[in-house]
Amino acid sequence: MADTRRRWLARFAFLTAAAAVALVPAVAGPRAGIGLVLVGVAGMAVTLAGAWWFLVHHGVVRWLAGFLVIFAPVAVAVVYAQAHLVWVAGAAAVLWMIAVACGRRALTGVHDPDEVETAPPRRPFLIMNPRSGGGKVERFGLVERAWLLGAQVCLLDGTRDVTEIARQAVREGADLLGVAGGDGTQALVADVAAAHGVPFLVIPAGTRNHFALDLGLDRDDPVGCLDALTDGVEVRVDLGVIGDRTFVNNASFGAYAELVRSPAYRDDRVGTMLDLLPGLLTEEQPARQLHLRAGDAEVDGPQAVLISNNPYGTGDLAGWGRRPRLDGGRLGVLAVTVHDAAEAAGLLRGRRGSNALLERTEPEAVITADVPLLPVGVDGEAVTVPTPVRCTTRPGALRVRVPRNRRAPRRGLDWHELRRLAFT
Predict the structure, then answer these.
(1) Using alpha carbons only, how large is the chain's radius of gyration in Å?
(2) Is residue 367's pLDDT more than 80?
(3) pTM, to two decimals
(4) Strands 373-378, 381-386: parallel, antiparallel or unpaired by DSSP?
């Protein structure tokens, strides 16, 4: 019954999306309607080109491009208003939002890992970073709540290696390891948990906590994640490996890795990005010359490469969105090579089929460079690894204990997955 309901939701999503596209020509008439649609497409192209120029230039050119990004949509709106079709554009937008909502609902639960009933841990050991997430550990009272639930807590003070702390805890009898901190710390301790076969508890006390998000955990309620200690279930998920280091989300090469290396990045992410991207995305200050091999595909000189622990949903080029599943046993591989505004616009309009993008799903990827040591952003942490860099996956390596009443993970909308659900 649930599968039938999902299938019809997927079909309804495609129906409303088609209605959104056809509404303007249907109301305005074929000739005028097609002209208005072309105006909208042109406005989008100009906006995307302006966004590219904004990213790759400094000074006057950047701000002129910013004006273009704002002006183009306004000009399209004025054209629609003169044709007395503003209400039609609004209705099309509503239809599109309905299509997206139905599509996401249809995909909810499709690839969720199987939940397994296990006994609660008797000697849980939790590592908490009091500086992570602007002090979430103290703000949410996580230490006191963990004590009440019978957990031993270790607060990081920067003097001890977190991996060794986790290993020592297992040697002393801990039957669950958990982390209240960011994704970088989560990955280090998850590696220890997987190596010793003990379950792992994720407490989202960092800044973004994408791993927790894809597990269906509420990032605004880290206290609620502690409920898994007494009333939880287990799921098995994959781990990614880069060299000899584990990652739970992704490893980034090229432009993003250079951003993460900047000392100013953590304090001013947006400002640092705007300051460094022009040099990284053009020939002024090229990132390390990279070469990617994934399966039977190869790319020379990409500006950015993203290797993720399972692929991200359609349309996510930066790893800031969500992964439809965490137990697929594959790496997501994205390589971006953009030389001008036209390629950037084509890439942003729809990544599949763009010459600027390589997209693969593979068990392994290898990155080489023209330097012996390569900077990489691993789960948001700046590290340096020797080349060549081999990335692989460890399917089902990690047992994760999650609260029984966690919400279903809200998935990104993958139209290709939705099409398979609706019509096959």
Answers:
(1) 24
(2) yes
(3) 0.75
(4) antiparallel
